[in-house]
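Quick one, tokens below. Sequence please?
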């Protein structure tokens, strides 16, 4: 997959966790990576380059328009354009499980800002570059939580439901530009951030394994194949879709 030519791929939140798994997998497949993150970009870029692979790092706050525009400028200057945008940056592991009426207005707005405004600003900045080239792929990282109606994290669930709706509507707007827009909805994944936060120890086992058809913990590497396919030329007639990659916990 994606073997037809080297692509320029921007991964937001790409310095660690699921984002870094995406970066490393696609870089090893021969693609030129742009690692955009709030912190850790230099270290992540060095890890990729030390493998003899192509990557640049751009420190980026996805809720700041100037940062996002500088990210696009850096990618265009280094590689001459952008083929794939992976909207992966989001708030999750720093959140605590709590009833909805204990979520403050400030916390609600911060989650919405990062998880919904971020993908909007990134798409808005990247689409003109893709239109100039005549093609592109936008892949949004959603979640299966809005499909399940997962309790105790209403702000996060609502934000990821918005990402799915965003994906569908943006796909309709960009179809004539030969730009596809799809989403991947992971299940609860034992990412680096989850393990460090201890969130996996607080999550009920039904959310982690036993509700799945494939009854084991999900890891970031379980997601890379779906990403590679949606970013490839072979997926050029697929748009507006949400692909659940969760071991068969939900069926869409």
């Amino acid at each position: 997959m994606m073997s037809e030519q080297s692509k320029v791929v921007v991964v937001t939140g790409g310095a660690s966790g699921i984002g870094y798994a995406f970066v490393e997998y696609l870089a090893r497949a021969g693609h030129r990576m742009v690692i955009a993150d709030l912190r850790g970009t230099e270290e992540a870029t060095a890890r990729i380059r030390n493998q003899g692979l192509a990557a640049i790092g751009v420190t980026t706050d996805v809720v700041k328009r100037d940062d996002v525009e500088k990210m696009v400028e850096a990618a265009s200057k280094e590689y001459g354009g952008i083929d794939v945008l992976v909207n992966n940056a989001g708030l999750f592991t720093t959140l605590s499980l709590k009833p909805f009426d204990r979520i403050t207005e400030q916390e609600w707005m911060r989650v919405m800002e990062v998880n919904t405004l971020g993908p909007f600003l990134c798409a808005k900045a990247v689409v003109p570059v893709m239109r100039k080239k005549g093609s592109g792929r936008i892949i949004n990282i959603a979640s299966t939580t809005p499909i399940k109606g997962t309790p105790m994290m209403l702000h996060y669930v609502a934000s990821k439901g918005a990402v799915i709706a965003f994906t569908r509507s943006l796909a309709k707007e960009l179809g004539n530009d030969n730009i596809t827009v799809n989403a991947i909805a992971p299940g609860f994944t034992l990412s680096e951030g989850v393990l460090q936060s201890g969130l996996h120890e607080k999550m009920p086992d039904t959310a982690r394994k036993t509700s799945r058809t494939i009854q084991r913990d999900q890891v970031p590497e379980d997601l890379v194949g779906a990403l590679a396919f949606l970013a490839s030329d072979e997926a050029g007639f697929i748009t507006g879709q949400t692909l659940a990659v969760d071991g068969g916990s939900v069926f869409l």
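The two ends are 24 Å apart (CA to CA). Residues 4 and 233 are 8 Å apart (CA to CA).
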